Every structure is written in structure tokens, then in C-alpha cells.
Amino acid sequence: MIKTSEHAPKGIIKFVLSLVISLTIFLWSLDLMTETFQIIGNDTVIRLLDIISNPFVSLFIGIFITAVIQSSSTSTSLIVAIVASGSLPLQNAVPMVMGANIGTTLTSTIVSLSYITNNKEFKNAIATGVMHDFFNILTVTILFPLEWNYHILTELSQDITHFVGFKNKTATDVAVTHSGLFDYINSYLIGITSFKPLLILLSTASLFGSIKIMSKTISNRMIGTMREKFESVFFKNNFNAFSLGAILTAVIQSSSISTTVIVPLGATGKIKLEKIFPYIVGANIGTTITALIAAVNKSEAAMNIALVHFLFNLIGTVIFLLTPGIKKIPVIYAQKFGSMTMRYKIIGFFYILVVFFILPLSLIFLGKL
């Protein structure tokens, strides 16, 4: 008992230090990225805009990038930083955010393939994994045409920022008013680096690493203590499941982790798909907190794109969790896909390759022609 009490303060100190350091790196990398994009120049920006001016290409860039780095928190934070720098118009960034929501579902789908040796568990695992995919794909199917034709997410986010009185900052204002804590470091790095894209790589790697550290630090501390309570307490009703998904994901900053930990419980049948679905929808809401944090003290456009991420998931929640009749569609399709994949296992691998890699890369390549 004495050893436990002696080690507890050390564990808490280590936990707090890890969070403080990772959050500091996260904020610094966003500042560096924003400044670097402003310095890189118009030629690079024009080439970037030529590629993503097509909303379909922008959508699939979001899918592919997020599938590769396996973190919608990282990819949406990147998008916020680019929008904040003034290099990327808000309307061009919206499809990328939609794509990021699809790309982040790859992890749980891959994890579900590990149950391939047990037919019953494999069926349930696949259904649990792809339910997240189908929810986001169906939400994109509904909202992408509406955004393309009527810009509903863009205009709604702008209305909200104006309503709450968010200060309208230009990209130049952001460069001048960002946190003084990072001024010296950024100025020094920009001054000694002749090839500025290296700073983009540095800030991206730092952003990705900081989010991973936060995710691992918090998930190891939280998920381990809650695992036994998942079934009896957190999935007692839809509200509990939704709240757990939202809060857990907001805290650990990774929907990839929070949705992956539920796959084993779905595979063994301990928790039914109908009870898991609200948890997954909640996780989608929780993951939007990262972009909102990243947008603080940035331009109005940066806050707008962060709100787009939130609104996209909120509208999807209203449609597929609260609307009678419609709310069962992702669960039903996931169950049918699980049954089909159990009979023809190659379908699971083919699905991952096509949706997350072959189709996005093909459209991105065609968009460059």
C-alpha cells in the first residue's frame, strides 16, 4: 500500500507533464505551419488551389491523407492551419473536412479483419468496424451535394461566427497577434531555413506526434480503468453510449482509438450493434474539439472551417440517430456487409483498398490532368 501511495504522485506528475508538453507542441506546430504557409508564396498556393478547386478531388484528398496518417484530428488541424494562413479558401476546404471524416474510419475496419479466423466473431467485428464508415459515407452522400450547390455548411458556420461575435482577423492579423511564446522559435527557424517546405514537414510531424502523445497518454489512463464498465454502465441506454463516445474522444483526441476499442466488444457479441452505434456517433462529435482548439486565436475563416467539422457531424447525428426510420440504416447496412464479408472474406480487403486508397488516388491523379 505504501508503494502505491508513493508511486501515485509520480504517475500523476508524469501524466500532467505529458499533456502540457504535447499541448504546447500542438499549439506551436500550428503557429509555425500558419506562418510558413504565408511565406511560401503565391506560386505554391496557386498549384495547391488548382488541384483542390474540384470539390470531388478535395473530398478524396481528405479521405486519402486521413487514411494514411490515421488521425482526423491531425488532418483537420492541418486544414485549419492552411485556412488560417489565407492560402486555402473556406469553400475549398469543406470537402476535405468531409473526406477526413471518412478516412479516419480505416483503423477500426482494419482491426476488425483480425477476427478472420472465427466466422461468427469476424461477422460481428466487420459490422462494428464498417458501421463508422457507413455513417460518415451516408452523411457525406447527403451533405456534399447540398454544400456543392447551396454552401449550407459554409454559410451556416459563417452565420454562427458572426452571431457569437468571433473577432474577424485576417491572415496578416494572425501572424502579428499569435502567441508570443512561439515568436522567437518560429522566427529563428524561418530565418535559418532556406527551403521553407521543410518547415511544413517539421510542423506536420510535430502536430501528428503531439496528438499521438496526447491520445496515448490519456487513453492508457482512462480506457484501462473503464473497460470493465463499458457494458454494464456506459451502454445501458443510447444517451449513455453517445455521451461516452463524445467525452472519451474529446479527451483522448482520437476517434480512431475510441472506435477501435469497441470492436472487440462488438465482435464477441457482448454489446449489440444497435447499442454501439450511438457511441460511434458520439465519437464523431467528440473528435471535432481538436479543430476548434486549433482555430482559437486564428482567423475567422479558420474558426469557420472548425465549425464546419462540428456541424457536419452534428447534422449527421440528427439525421441518423434522432430521425425515426432513418437511424437504423447504417446499422442494417453494416450487418448485411458483415454477413457478406463472412461468406466472401476477400470483400473486406477489397473494400479497404478501393474506398481508402485506389478510388481517392485515382481521382486525385485525374484531377491533376
Automatic annotation (TrEMBL):
What does the UniProt entry say about where the protein is found? Answer: Cell membrane
Decide whether keyword Transmembrane helix is in the record.
yes
Per the record, its GO cellular-component terms are: plasma membrane
Which GO MF terms does the UniProt record name?
sodium:phosphate symporter activity
Q: Which InterPro entries match?
A: Na/Pi_transpt (IPR003841)
Question: What top-level branch of life does the organism fall under?
Answer: Bacteria
Q: Name one Pfam family in it.
A: Na_Pi_cotrans
The protein, known as:
Solute carrier family 34 (Sodium-dependent phosphate cotransporter)
Report whether Iron shows up as a keyword of the record.
Answer: no
Membrane topology field: Multi-pass membrane protein
Q: Where are the transmembrane segments?
A: 12-30, 51-73, 93-113, 125-146, 188-211, 276-296, 302-323, 344-366
Question: One GO biological process from the UniProt record?
Answer: sodium-dependent phosphate transport
Q: Which UniProt keywords apply?
A: Cell membrane, Membrane, Transmembrane, Transmembrane helix
Q: What is its main location?
A: membrane
Signal peptide bounds: none
